[in-house]
Amino acid sequence: MKKFWAWGALVFGLLYFILPLLGMTNFSLKMRRGVYSLDAYAVVLGDPRFQETFTYSVMMALATIAFGVLLVVPTAYWVRLKLPGLRPYVEFITLLPLVIPAIVIVFGYIRLYNTSSWLPLTGSVTGTNILLMFGYSMLALPYMYRAVDTGLRAIDIATLTEAAQSLGAGWMTILARIILPNVLVAVLSGAFLTFAIVIGEFTMAALLNRPAFGPYMQLLGANRAYEPAALAVMSFALTWGCLGLIQLVSRFQKGAQSPA
Amino acid sequence: MSSDSSAAGQPAREPFRLPLHWLGAAPFALFVLLFLIMPTMRIVIGAFQTADGSFTLDNIRGLFTTSILSAYWISIKISVASALLGCLIGFAVASAAVLGGLPKWLRGPLLTFSGVASNFAGVPLAFAFLATLGPLGLVTVFLKTQLGIDLRALGFNILSFWGLTITYLFFQIPLMILIITPALDGLKREWREAAQILGATNTQYWRMVAFPILLPSFLGTFALLFANAFGAVATAMALTGSSLNIVPILLFAQIRGDVLGNPHLGYALAFGMIVVTGIANTIYIWLRARSERWLK
Fold this sequence. Notes:
The structure holds 2 protein chains of 2 kinds. By secondary structure, chain A is mostly helical. Chain A contains 12 helices and no strands. In chain A, helix 2 (39-46) crosses helix 12 (227-257), helix 6 (125-153) packs antiparallel against helix 9 and helix 9 runs antiparallel to helix 12. By secondary structure, chain B is an all-alpha fold. Chain B is built from 13 helices and no strands. Chain B has helices at 2-13, 26-47, 58-62, 66-98, 107-119, 123-133, 138-146, 161-185, 189-197, 202-230, 234-240, 247-257, 263-292. Chain B is globular and about 70 Å long. The two termini of chain B are 22 Å apart.
């Protein structure tokens, strides 16, 4: 009896998740009347706007990841090593982007960094791109910080630091050649999650008027019928790929550690 | 405070050293200050200012008009409904996998899939549901042609309260599964055995032992899911355009083109969002701290 209910709950859950995936896949293949075809995908992939916005979002994601790693790894390391009393506060701050809706943060950016302010970031294209990258870093901060902090917990950073220092290493060397390689798996998990978040992000890019992939998808959704479904399938595959890579690297880590 | 003791330990050895180690946290502090705290403060302060900068409560008072209040009300209703259903269904699925005697190998894939699905939000999610429950969607057409059930005639519309709630559930349920599974794992077998030795029935064990232990994580996740749905913009925009009057969509339109006719009313609208999600998350953090006491 208990098993029956358990299976029932699981099947219900599975149906709920598989039907929309099935629905979008099915719909994306129906562009040509009467037969299944990949026309919708061909149209999307051939659209120069798709290529532009997708490239733009990939570049933004890579920049966000680079900035996030440069910001989070030294900070998390330093806080654990030298300022352990600050840890609860830093952790609280890194959770704030989950509390304050993205639309509110970007609203603040527009008011604070407009052309007549002391730091007119929205005045130029480069400035707006940088602002958007900072915004994305904010959105990814909770995930990135958590991943890196968990990674740091697993290694003895105090001993590693002292060992490196007694061999004459400076702070840069310690961070780049001792700490980073040791938390690489955690950094990669954070990076893939950041990638998944940035690629599909809509609100910030739309309000800052940048040609990103999220606003493009939204625009296409408002004007076309089958192409959006094809886009949905592709972004699901992309999310799946990112999260799958996280699983893969963490398994790789476990496999590499167990023989040693 | 541990920071005090370590900071006090350092000068004892080197009396004239400046506390330079604080500088290590400076870039992070600067970044957070410039791109999180100050923008948010700008909104909060703006909500209490007139156009020439003097203090006023008129903007907050301006929120209490029929259309804005109804936007908050619909937003809160959708968030509560999707958070509540997300908690219940997620709990059912998670407890089926953890306690229901299902094969062990199901757990890994279930958690992985939940991780993916909880991140599959935004614009594509709306497309997926349009292709499933929209007028020409897979399920809609199937029900109509095979079973003779016309969802439209029954009053269901994907661009409505229930449509949006069902769509949000796609990322709410997996989030619940991800958070509640560790809590369910934390229910120690000894507790059940102890209860049974003392003569408790299964119902009594659930009512008097398991339920009180799980309650904080349950309520806490509810608050998190609530905030999650309340701040979601992209899914709602892509699904309904601007036909549904909810707060994030109203704020989006206000930022784009000042539809309310008063920039400072926009600040107040955003401030209201911070207040609502802030309350929900304070409850979450408080309850999570309580539930973690049992899960060590």
